[in-house]
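re: ur question from yesterday

yeah so i grabbed the chain u mentioned. its 129 aa long if i counted rite. heres the sequnce exactly as i have it in my notes:
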Amino acid sequence: LSYLGPSVLQSLVKYNRCGVYNSMQIWEHDGPAQLHFSGEDLEGAVEDGRLVDLNSYLNDSSVAGTGSNDSSSSADNKRRRPWLGAVVEDGPLVSSLWEELKKDDRIDLLDNLQIKSIQAPSPSLMGKI
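ran it thru and got these structure tokens back, copy pasting raw so excuse formatting
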């Protein structure tokens, strides 16, 4: 979700189209083995810059509506644990991305066109890739 940018994520959360989870437990059907993952497991990766804390993209009021199971919402604990993951509906995600593309002046969106052929430029025009 971090690659989508703050405005797309804010839109999905605002309209309750993004369900966040902070933990996950996986177990064997017929055995004793189980794994437990938590957003707290990701704090080191966030602190050293390997992961983006998606809470930083949102203000506190929008995060409260995400269905987060984080019970540490006291005034002295301003930092929420990182999201382990999120479930996002496909339709609203695609709509949010299209709206973001429409806002970008660097992108020309062409609608109702049919491509008849595509010709690759010569290697000399492309330069070093």
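noticed a couple things. Residues 90-103 form the longest helix (14 residues). also DSSP finds five helices and four strands in the chain.
anyway ttyl
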